[in-house]
Amino acid sequence: METTLHRQLKEHFAGSTGRTEVKLGRYRIDVVRGKKLIEIQCSGLAAIRDKIRRLCAEHKVEVVKPLVMRKRIVKLAEQGGEIVSQRWSPKRGKPLDLFDELIYFTRAFPHPN
Questions:
Q1: CATH code of 50's domain
Q2: What pLDDT digit, counting tens, does each position of 38-50 carry?
């Protein structure tokens, strides 16, 4: 299921000239702008490591990994129901968190494309 953040990032990076959800071989690419492929990964980078490695063999690929700096925790009475409570998570994201992700992305990064 696509999150709102993922959809908004696709729209942002596509701009007025890019295309979203483009089928390329066995893969679906989030955004294609000219000859550049843009993949947006809100979860762990390890999930797209092999896909990116294969795509980089023939294409320029940009990977977008948003970092969550602050998160609101919302409890619902039931799925899609009323909000019971909400609060800010005490955990704070920081730019160095990206390096924790790159440990699992070594088969695809660094690459000239």
A1: 3.40.960
A2: 999 998 899 999 9
Q: How many CB atoms lie within 10 A of CB 10?
A: 18
Q: Cis link prior to 112 (omega < 30° from 0)?
A: no
The DSSP-derived string for 53-75 is: HHHHTTSEEEEE----S--EEEE
In sign, the C-alpha dihedral spanning 94, 110, 51, 37 is positive
Is residue 21 a part of any domain in this protein?
A: yes
Question: pLDDT below 70 — which residues of the chain?
Answer: none
User: How many distinct helices (H) and strands (E) make up the chain?
Assistant: 3, 6
Residues ≥6 apart with Cβ < 8 Å to 50: 107, 108
Give the domain extent around 36. 4-105
pTM of the predicted model as reported, rounded to 2 decimal places: 0.81
